[in-house]
Structure formats: C-alpha cells, structure tokens
Design goal:
The chain is an alpha+beta fold. Helices cover about 40% and strands about 15% of the residues. The chain has a four-stranded antiparallel β-sheet with strand order 2-3-1-4. The chain binds thymidine-5'-diphosphate.
C-alpha cells in the first residue's frame, strides 16, 4: 500500500471543481487518508518546486499557487503513486490525454488543476511537507475486499 500527495491547485478551487476531482479519486478506489485546505507561502513553494526555481516561469507559477488556498490530499492504495500520476496526465493540459484530469479539465501548462507526486520517494517527502503525521489516517476501507483481489494488497 502506498500513500501519495495531491494538491488541488487554485485553478481547481476557483473553478469549483474540488468535489468533482475528489470524486474521481474516490470512484477509482483510492482511500482519502488526509485532506485539508491551506494557503501556501513563498517558502513552501520554493521548497516544493525547488527543481523549477531557476526556470523563467517560476515567478508566475509561485504567484498562481497563492491566488487562493489549495486543498492537500493524501491518497492511499496499492501503487497509489503511479495510479494517481496516470490519472493526472501530462503537465500541459492541452497535450494531456482525454480521460485524465488535466486532459478533461485543463487548457494550460500552468493552470493545470492538480499536483501529484511523481515517485514513491517524492511522495514521502511531499506528504511530510504538507501534513503532520497525525493528520494522515490509517483506517481500513469498508470496501477493501471489493477493491482488491486476494493477494493483491
Ligand atoms: P513539473 O514538475 O515539470 O510537472 P508536473 O506538475 O506535471 O509534475 O512542473 C510543476 C508545475 O510547474 C506544473 O504543474 C505547472 C508549472 N509549469 C509551468 O508553469 N510551465 C512549464 O513550462 C512547466 C514545465 C511547468
């Protein structure tokens, strides 16, 4: 079982898509292990996007991420990191496949609705960045036996 970090970005919050996107993750069978609204500051964005701070688009990216609160989600499931990343789609919404979140809701490379951790290692780091340990809940899904076959989880 893995847990991964998703941020519902201001493009999601402002377009009133929070429920719709959370619903897609729930329908897939991912368990919501943590969920909270946060206003991000420069410090956490510089850390979160450390690989991009020298890119020309970083100032507009950081500004766009602060135009409203975001919703941080911790999602659990077997191979949850890869499953959620695949559901997210390519960075640029115009290039993302239909059926993915970005491919269904985004027309932009920056206003692209969601962030999702890109590896198991980064998921652990990012969960720690956005959640305190006691804000992530490890409970058994009531439909667990109907989500996975014997030996899968
Ligand atoms: P990145 O980590 O490359 O992509 P992803 O979100 O798919 O893991 O980029 C992080 C965010 O930076 C991306 O979601 C939106 C923003 N961004 C831009 O604004 N312009 C760009 O050209 C790129 C590559 C990213």
């Amino acid at each position: 079982m893995e847990t991964t970090l998703v941020l519902l970005k201001p493009s999601c919050v402002q377009r009133q898509l929070i429920g719709e996107i959370v619903h897609r993750f729930e329908r897939r069978g991912l368990r919501i292990a943590g969920m909270k609204m946060m206003q991000l500051d420069d410090a956490i964005l510089r850390e979160h996007y450390a690989h991009l701070v020298d890119r020309p688009f970083f100032p507009t990216l950081a500004a766009s991420m602060q135009t409203s609160p975001v919703v941080a989600l911790a999602l659990s499931g077997v191979e949850a990191v890869g499953v959620v990343r695949a559901m997210t789609g390519f960075t640029n919404g115009r290039k993302a496949d239909p059926g993915t979140i970005r491919g269904d809701y985004a027309m932009s490379n920056q206003q692209n609705i969601v962030h999702a951790s890109d590896s198991v290692e980064n998921a652990a780091i990012e969960l720690n960045r956005f959640f305190r340990p006691e804000e992530i809940f490890d409970y058994k899904s009531g439909v667990f036996d109907f989500l996975y076959g014997v030996g899968e989880a």
